[in-house]
Amino acid sequence: MKKEYSFQFGRFPTRVIIQHELPPLEQIRENLTALGYRFSGYLLVCDEHTEVFARRIAGDAVCVLKSGEEEKTWPSIERILKLAKDRGLGRDGLFIGVGGGVVSDLSAFAASIYMRGARLCVVSTTLLGMADAAVGGKTGFDLFGIKNFAGTFFPARLVYMPLESLNTLPEYEWKSGMAEIIKTAVLDREEKPESPAYTGSFFSACLKLREGSPPGVFPNRLYALNPEGLFECITRSVEFKGRIVEADPEETGGKRALLNLGHTFAHALEASLGLGSVSHGEAVAWGLARSCELGFSIGITSEKQIGEIKEVLALYGYEIRTPHPLLKDIPSFMQALGGDKKKSSGQLSFIVPCETGAVIAKLGAGLPPDYLHIVEKIIENL
Ligand SMILES: NC(=O)c1ccc[n+]([C@@H]2O[C@H](COP(=O)([O-])OP(=O)(O)OC[C@H]3O[C@@H](n4cnc5c(N)ncnc54)[C@H](O)[C@@H]3O)[C@@H](O)[C@H]2O)c1
Predict the structure, then answer these.
(1) Global model pTM greater than 0.90
(2) Residue 281: CB within 6 Å of ligand 1?
(3) What is the mean pLDDT of residues 235-260?
């Protein structure tokens, strides 16, 4: 099982390689050379849980960060930059981020500003990283208490997705990543019956992936359970996101915003419950169910589609009831919704599912003037 993609994200080409094994440094070097990039020195960036992978890639030059979103701050960036400097890296130095979305966002940001831009390779080791964070060139860190407040667009030249690394991923992280895959399956309506690697619709691939597991329980160790099925779901996520980002690399009003399906509700849930109360993916799954209901209220999402989406989410064991059992304070949820950073010109926008994938609903373009009442009723389940 191996698949490679070449994308062009604005000025930058990116090669994505999905394979079973972790790439040794020599493989990284060969691939970069084939792409026309040479590097003089390198620095591996990882966290305490992915250090083992970083040391398998190359034993030395490893910057180990503490794990978790709390570490996605400027001091971590400074540490990475300082170690790169101490190792004498020049502009042609290579940063290799080995880990989930936190490590890839941090190492990519550091690479983007190091001497005005060094080389970057990402080795993604979480399902969320593979399905989402590692592809597309968004980098960043949290500042002033706001997630991803500071950042750049700086796509990695090379991205590896070594599936064997998933064997140690905790269940909580599997469930978080799988929600982003299901979200992408809702967006990607393309049938691919002609390709032996694909089994028809992405949505049916998500259903097949968990076959044999009891309904309502998240199937643990999906890679051991169904390696081909997982490979298919990851490759389709990468391919879909890659094509969307190619068309709108810096999210300037094109299709890239569609990738935020379910996220307006998810961010408000995470903010009102407190970050970490539910995983990001669980919030996305819950938000996806709410986007369906909003889409139905405004005449965009069909009852049949809502049924299909909610069925998959429930089979995987996501909490999709509303009000969310942990949400005690609906006014704080509505306030968080109003503060969502994806508001543009003072206006909230929601992505809602439709027959062709999803559409953006904004005031005057799908959303009626009294939409906040509609949203509140959905959240309260009135
Ligand atoms: N740049 C983007 O486009 C983009 C998109 C989506 C999310 N993100 C960012 O990604 C972050 C979330 O990423 P995440 O969910 O991967 O979180 P994460 O990087 O914090 O990883 C989750 C946990 O899993 C551990 N871990 C990683 N790989 C492991 C492995 N193979 N085995 C065992 N443990 C492992 C990590 O140490 C961490 O404790 C957020 O900060 C989010 O903002 C970025």
Answers:
(1) yes
(2) no
(3) 94
- Per-domain residue ranges for the chain? 2-169, 173-380
Angle at 183 between CA 182 and CA 189, to 5 degrees: 85
Ligand 1 centroid distance, CA of 303 (Å) = 34
Name the closest-CA residue to atom 22, ligand 1. Answer: 100
CATH of segment(s) 2-169: 3.40.50.1970
2-169 and 173-380: same fold?
A: no
Tell how strand 141-143 and strand 62-65 pair up. Answer: unpaired
Cα 284 to ligand 1 centroid, rounded to whole Å: 15
341 pLDDT higher than 60: no
- Torsion-angle region of 147 (φ positive above 0: left; ψ -120 to 50: alpha; else: beta): beta
Orientation angle between helical segments 303-315 and 171-187, nearest 10 degrees: 160
CA 104 to ligand 1 centroid distance, Å? 8
Q: Cite the active site residues.
A: 116, 138, 180, 241, 251, 256, 260, 263, 267, 280
Q: Place domain 173-380 in its CATH homologous superfamily.
A: Dehydroquinate synthase-like - alpha domain (1.20.1090.10)
- 102-116 pLDDT, tens digit each: 999 999 999 999 999
